[in-house]
Design a protein that fits this description.
126 residues; Nuclear Transport Factor 2, Chain: A; 3 helices; 7 strands; SnoaL-like domain-containing protein
């Protein structure tokens, strides 16, 4: 997490409609990250692939990036959760380090068949 988020100065705005639990909006990167720990620990695997919609606006000290992605969460006990999502990230460069300060994620459930071709394309690229 520390690679992408400034955990020493974690203030920001982090929203994810797919976040586990009751809170979808966070103002602290460390708390936002910790919110996902239970889901990650309960997963046999979590896979992602990029889909499209990539764009960026880059300045000297701030940047905005967007991307599309799919994911599959395979729980150790229970369900497989396939989803499609979009993300917009607000980055800030401080002392040569780019860190996420704002994050807006929107995801929705799909079928495994709907997103399988993204994983197939990823495997061909390796």
């Amino acid at each position: 997490m520390n690679h992408y988020y400034d955990l020493k100065s974690p203030a920001g705005v982090f929203y994810d409609n797919f976040a586990p639990g009751e809170n979808l909006l966070f103002d602290n990167a460390a708390i936002y990250g910790a919110n996902w720990e239970g889901l990650q620990a309960g997963a046999e695997s979590v896979t992602h692939a990029l889909t499209g919609g990539r764009s960026e606006l880059i300045g000297a000290h701030v940047a905005s990036t967007t991307l599309g992605f799919v994911g599959t969460i395979t729980k150790k006990v229970g369900d497989v959760i396939p989803f499609d999502g979009r993300s917009q990230l607000g980055w800030q460069c401080d002392a040569g380090q780019w860190k996420i300060r704002q994050e807006l994620n929107c995801a929705w459930m799909v079928t495994e068949e709907e997103i399988a071709h993204y994983y197939d394309a990823m495997m061909v690229g390796n």
